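in:
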C-alpha cells in the first residue's frame, strides 16, 4: 500500500505568534516574557548573540521544550505543542545548521524514509512517480536519484528544505542556513525560499548572524539579548548599526584599528614551496606551492569546508606528515617543534580551541602558561616550575584579555566558548609574535566576542606579525585580509588583493568553477 506524501503547501503558509514566552532552567531564566509575531507568508529574521535565547525560543515553538509560561498561537488559534510531533501536525518544521540526511541514501530514499508512516515494503515505481509529481510544484530542481554524499552543500541544503515541504510543513525555522554554503549557493537558496514566502506558500523564521542576508531577504526582524526582547521592526526601516546596537546594548565594540598599508619592502615571514601531503581519506593529496605571507600582512584563505584547509593547517602545526616540499619561516626550515616555534615566534590559534589548543581538564592558569611555564622572566629554562609564577602570569592575562572565569583553578572546559577563545588568544598573542596562524577564530562566537577577537588579530598584524587566516566566513576574510587566496580541492586556485576582490568571483572559485 502506498501512503501518498502530505500535499505540498499551496496557499497554506502558517502564521505563528508567541505571547509572554518564558523559560526557566532552575534559577536561570533563558527566556523572559518574549512575544514575537511571524505573520503567514512573511520572512522573519531572529537576531541575537550566542546565549541570547534564540534556540530556546525556537525549541519551545517546536515542542522540544515546555515553556514555564506563555502561549503559542498558530494561525490565530492558541495551541499546545507538547512534542515535535505536535509541531509537525500543525505544519511547523525546522532545518538545522548541520545536515540531518543519510549520506549513503539517495535524495528520493531520504524523502520517503522521513515520513511518519513508511510501508514495510516500498513500491519504488509508484513512489518515484509520486515524487516526480511533487517535485514539479517545487522551486528547486534536484537530482533525487543521486546519493546525498555526492551532492554539493547547496544541494543538500535544498534537499533539507524540500524534505520539510514534502512532509507538509508550511512554517519553517532556518537555523543559520548558509553557514556551509558558498555566497552563490546562499543567494540562490535564500532567494528561492523568499519567493515561496512571497507567493504565500511558506512562512520563514531565520536565525542568522549575517546582517547582509537579513537586509537582503527578511521583511521583519526580532532581536533577543540575555533572554529578553530588545528590539523588533521592519528591515527596510533599520540599518545594520541599529540592529547591532539592539543586539549588544551599550557595551563598546572593539573596533578594528586603522590599518597601515603593507610595506612594499616587507620581508616574507612564511613561505611554503611545493608542499604535498595526504588528505584525511588518504585517497587525495593537498598541493600547496608559492604561498608567501609578509610581515605586517594578513593573507586570508577562503574555501568551503573539506577542501584541504584542515590538512594544510595540520602540516603547519606539525600534526600531519608531509610527503615533500618545504615550510620556511624567517628563511629557516620549519618543522613545528616547540623549540622552533619559540625561537621563531610562531603562534597558532586552531579552530575549536578547547579540543585543539587546550588540555580541557587542566586549569585555566595551567592552559594559559603552556608556552612559558618552563621559562624564567628572561626566557631562560628554569630548574623548578613555580605554580605561583604560573598563577600570577595567568591572572595578568585574564585581566588584560577580559577572560571571564570563576577562578584560575577552574578547569578550562568550564568556560564558555568565547572565553576559551580569549584565553587561547591571550596565551598566543602575549610576547613577540612574528607569525600567527589562525583558523576560523570566531566560529560559533557571539557578536561582541567576534569584534574583539578580530581587533586583536588586526593589532598583531599592525605590530608587524605575518598572519595566515583560514576561515569559512567570507565576511570575516573580506574585513580582515590584505590578500585573499581561494583553496579548492587541496590547492590554491585563485588570488586577489582585497582592493579589487569580487565576492562573486571568489564564490565561483570556492565552488570549483575555475
Amino acid at each position: 500500500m502506498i501512503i501518498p506524501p502530505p500535499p505540498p503547501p499551496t496557499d497554506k503558509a502558517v502564521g505563528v505568534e508567541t505571547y509572554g514566552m518564558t523559560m526557566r532552567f532552575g534559577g536561570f531564566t533563558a527566556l523572559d516574557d518574549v512575544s514575537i509575531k511571524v505573520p503567514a507568508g512573511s520572512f522573519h529574521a531572529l537576531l541575537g548573540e550566542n546565549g541570547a535565547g534564540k534556540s530556546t525560543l525556537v525549541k519551545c515553538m517546536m515542542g522540544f521544550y515546555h515553556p514555564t509560561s506563555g502561549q503559542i498561537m498558530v494561525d490565530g488559534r492558541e495551541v499546545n505543542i507538547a512534542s515535535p510531533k505536535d509541531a509537525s501536525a500543525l505544519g511547523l518544521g525546522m532545518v538545522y545548521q548541520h545536515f540531518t540526511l543519510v549520506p549513503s541514501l539517495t535524495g528520493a530514499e531520504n524523502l520517503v524514509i522521513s515520513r511518519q508512516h513508511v510501508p514495510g515494503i516500498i513500491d519504488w515505481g509508484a513512489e518515484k512517480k509520486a515524487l516526480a509529481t511533487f517535485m514539479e510544484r517545487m522551486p528547486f530542481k534536484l537530482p533525487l536519484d543521486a546519493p546525498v554524499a555526492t551532492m554539493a552543500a547547496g544541494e543538500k541544503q535544498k534537499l533539507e528544505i524540500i524534505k520539510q515541504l514534502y512532509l507538509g510543513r508550511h512554517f519553517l525555522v532556518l537555523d543559520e542556513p548558509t553557514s556551509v554554503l558558498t555566497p552563490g549557493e546562499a543567494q540562490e537558496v535564500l532567494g528561492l525560499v523568499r519567493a515561496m514566502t512571497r507567493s504565500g506558500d511558506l512562512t520563514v523564521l531565520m536565525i542568522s548572524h549575517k546582517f547582509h542576508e537579513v537586509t537582503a531577504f527578511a521583511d521583519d526582524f526580532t532581536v533577543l539579548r540575555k533572554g529578553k526582547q530588545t528590539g523588533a521592526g521592519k528591515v527596510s526601516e533599520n540599518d545594520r548599526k541599529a540592529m547591532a546596537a539592539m543586539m549588544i546594548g551599550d557595551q563598546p565594540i572593539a573596533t578594528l584599528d586603522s590599518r597601515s598599508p603593507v610595506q612594499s619592502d616587507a620581508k616574507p615571514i612564511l613561505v611554503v614551496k611545493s608542499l604535498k601531503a595526504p588528505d584525511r581519506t588518504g585517497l587525495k593529496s593537498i598541493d600547496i606551492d608559492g604561498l608567501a605571507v609578509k610581515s605586517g600582512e594578513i593573507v586570508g584563505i577562503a574555501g568551503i569546508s573539506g577542501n584541504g584547509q584542515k590538512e594544510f593547517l595540520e602540516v603547519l602545526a606539525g600534526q600531519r606528515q608531509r610527503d615533500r616540499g618545504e615550510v620556511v619561516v624567517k628563511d629557516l626550515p620549519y618543522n613545528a617543534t616547540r623549540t622552533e616555534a619559540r625561537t621563531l615566534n610562531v603562534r597558532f590559534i586552531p579552530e575549536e580551541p578547547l579540543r585543539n589548543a587546550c588540555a580541557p581538564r587542566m586549569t585555566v592558569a595551567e592552559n594559559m602558561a603552556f608556552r612559558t611555564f618552563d621559562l624564567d622572566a628572561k626566557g631562560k629554562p628554569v630548574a623548578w616550575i613555580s605554580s605561583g609564577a604560573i598563577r600570577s602570569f595567568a591572572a595578568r592575562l585574564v585581566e588584560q584579555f577580559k577572560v571571564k572565569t570563576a577562578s584560575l583553578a577552574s578547569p578550562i572546559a568550564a568556560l564558555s566558548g568565547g572565553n576559551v577563545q580569549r584565553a587561547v588568544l591571550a596565551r598566543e598573542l602575549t610576547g613577540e609574535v612574528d607569525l600567527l596562524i589562525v583558523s576560523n577564530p570566531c566560529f560559533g562566537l557571539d557578536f561582541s566576542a567576534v569584534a574583539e577577537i578580530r581587533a586583536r588579530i588586526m593589532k598583531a598584524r599592525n605590530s608587524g606579525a605575518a598572519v595566515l587566516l583560514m576561515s569559512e566566513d567570507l565576511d570575516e576574510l573580506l574585513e580582515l585580509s590584505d590578500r585573499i587566496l581561494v583553496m579548492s580541492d587541496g590547492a590554491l586556485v585563485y588570488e586577489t588583493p582585497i582592493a579589487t576582490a569580487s565576492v562573486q568571483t571568489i564564490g565561483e572559485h570556492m565552488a570549483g568553477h575555475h
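note: The first helix runs from residue 54 to 61.
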